[in-house]
Amino acid sequence: MRKHTLNGLVSLLVAAALGAHGLTAGAAPALAQESPFALSSGIPAALSSGIGPKPVGPAPGPDYVLVDGVWITNFDARFFEIMNNYRRANGRQPVRVSQELTDQARRWSWHMGRTGHFVHSHDKTFENIAMRPAGLPLTPEDFFVQWRNSPGHNANMLSHEVTRAGFSISDPSQPRVYATLQLLW
User: Fold this and answer.
1) In the CATH hierarchy, which fold is given to the domain comprising 64-184?
2) Where is the secretion signal located (predicted)?
3) Taking the complete model, does pTM exceed 0.85, yes or no?
């Protein structure tokens, strides 16, 4: 009887703590299952779920590098290198990789890939999105050039106000690959 009461109290405290943050006990696992990125790439669910602080620990996988304290893929790191070189060449400061914006970009790219809906998110950021169908080259340079050649997207990448960003693509094995770049000041 006493153990049952203690377990009930612990459950109540956990539920209250999660509820204070707008979560339920099932929220994190459901999000991790929803994101194939978290499952197929070996990224720990805590890293891909956007819940809680992101401690810098070991790399989530062999294709990851640490940039500005954020684990991102080599593909994403190459995109940031290209964009920041472009910003410098145009008299702008480079942007820093943001964990929050990287998580948002990752979730949105995978959402577009899963649903097939090519639309902007409701996140309050400067946002560039792109889609590359199967058969076209898939490199960070391709997404960068696509946005550089579009006046509005180019303006986002060169904005003086922008200081941090997140970039990610959807599952590259699918017929269409979606990319999201989110930028903030």
Assistant:
1) Pathogenesis-related Protein p14a (3.40.33)
2) 1-27
3) no
